[in-house]
Amino acid sequence: MFEDRAGKVLVDLLSEWGVDHIYGMPGDSINQLMEELRKEKDKMKFIQVRHEEAGALAAASYAKLTGKLGVCLSIAGPGAIHLLNGLYDAKKDSAPVLVLAGQVPTDQIGTDAFQEINMQRMFEDVAVFNEQVVSEEQLPALVNQAVRTAYAEKGPAVLTIPDDIPAAKIKKHVQKNAAIYEEPEQVPSSTEMEKALELIGNAKKPIILAGTGTKGAKQELEQFSDKIAAPVIVSLPAKGVIDDDHPNCLGNLGMIGTKPAYEAMEDSDLVILIGTSFPYVEFLPEGVSYIQIDNDPLKIGKRYPVNVGIAGDSQKSLTRLNERITRTENRDFLENSQEKMAKWWKEMEEDEQQTSTPIKPQQIIAEVQKIAEDDAVLSVDVGNVTVWAARHFRMKTTQKFLTSSWLATMGCGLPGAIASKMAYSDRQAIALCGDGGFSMNMQDFLTAVKYNLPMVVVVFNNERIGMIKYEQEAKGNLDYKTNLESFNFAQFAENCGGKGYRVENFEDLGPSIRAAASFNKPVIVDVCIEDEPPIPGKLSYEQVTSYSKQTIKKLFEKGKLEVPPIRKGLKRM
């Protein structure tokens, strides 16, 4: 190590940690680090993005998909500021990310130099680790500690590096610490396990709410559900931990969820939360018993009046419970939920199987389903498209689902698809985006083209920010400033060097999506869709009256009558 350049040591350490690529954009205060990356390009691939936000979102997506460290690089000032949205996405979704942020040279810090800002103060809220390197000798220890902290606390670790540091040689003797992080093994408490077994044994209507913590326990979850005769509801980011077509699966809960999930939750007498900190407590019943299993003790009891809390790994906890539980004979609650879910799927299929023009978003999902491979990665942007994907796409446990779950930032779909191809080059990547969300980071379609990352990007083009329009109307207001200018995303794809299909008629939908899936390059399928409101799985009286209020208001103020989908609304009451 001694007499090595600090920048080379940095790249070597990242390689030891298993990092093989970095997202970023070159610039003033990282020129020396870029030179080191150039020299080590066979070891460390640099993915040049067109906007640092896309780089941070891609790094977060990579970490969510793989559990491995995502890394992004930026200059001081504007570049670092651009990272924040993606870093908050990583923080909210518990994704380990390392930020290498440039800074002005050490002798200029504090002089109000060009592009200098107080980086540590800016990153203070978002970062789980936030340090500035003050000497080349300090760099190795800080790199290792930053990575360890990102893994341990599952969030963004920031290392600010003045531009003169990477080129400097480490001359003094430095005790090199280890590029090692070992995940602690949490053994469930036998006392709490006994309490949980007693509650489960006494329950007549148990229900499971499974989160991302069950991704490593898919078989155990399915076995547990069958043994205790409990239907399974999944949080949105956990979509795919159980097959959507599994008879015990009721889909999601909440505004994007299903009516059977809502009704089963309301009717339950025991809620078992596994690997989730589900934030929408208004959809959880009162006056029932709760069991919570989580590997983070801080989350147990954080949102719910938990009767039993088990701090432990979901797979180990479920394995122990399955070993002690005998198969429940009374399966009335489960079978009733299954019957309701079968009816729900028939209702969904009515929309999916329509052959009308204008095209409905549900029809698009049905066509995407046909071309989705068994190990496909589905990157879904935020907005109405999230609802259509959550309700209509039948995920398999062999596929992967990706979105911005708790920050819910628009513009995450394309960076997620880029990260998908970097993580799994041999797997199909599909991005589902609204026109509003896609246009926020559409410039990085050029990144997909530049690095030849085959993917299918489907744009649901209704020329408006559809979810916000619905939210405004659901409050009894008229929609305001939600409309967007018409844009041909297929032509944009062609101009970028990719392939584009513009779909305006249903007859062209299936052939265009099938053709897109056959191309070995980035493709955009731009589908013009009908403005379809994402009616909640279970409508409340307040929602119905508010929506009726805006309908009458629109008639009197604009002389325009838009009749809501009454038949569908009545079914959801």
TrEMBL record:
Top class in the EC scheme: oxidoreductase
Domain Thiamine pyrophosphate enzyme TPP-binding: 381-527
SUPFAM superfamilies: DHS-like NAD/FAD-binding domain, Thiamin diphosphate-binding fold (THDP-binding)
Pfam families found in the cross-reference section: TPP_enzyme_C, TPP_enzyme_M, TPP_enzyme_N
UniProt GO MF annotations: magnesium ion binding; pyruvate oxidase activity; thiamine pyrophosphate binding
Protein's UniProt keywords contain Repeat: no
Keywords linked to the UniProt accession: Oxidoreductase, Pyruvate, Thiamine pyrophosphate
Domain Thiamine pyrophosphate enzyme N-terminal TPP-binding: 6-119
InterPro entries: DHS-like_NAD/FAD-binding_dom, POXB-like, THDP-binding, Thiamin_PyroP_enz_cen_dom, Thiamin_PyroP_enz_TPP-bd_dom, TPP_enzyme_TPP-bd, TPP_POXB-like, TPP_PYR_POXB-like
EC number: 1.2.3.3
Record flagged with keyword Calcium: no
Domain named Thiamine pyrophosphate enzyme central: residues: 194-321
Family: Belongs to the TPP enzyme family.
Official protein name in the record: Pyruvate oxidase
Organism from which the protein derives: Oceanobacillus iheyensis (strain DSM 14371 / CIP 107618 / JCM 11309 / KCTC 3954 / HTE831)
Taxonomic lineage from the root: Bacteria, Bacillati, Bacillota, Bacilli, Bacillales
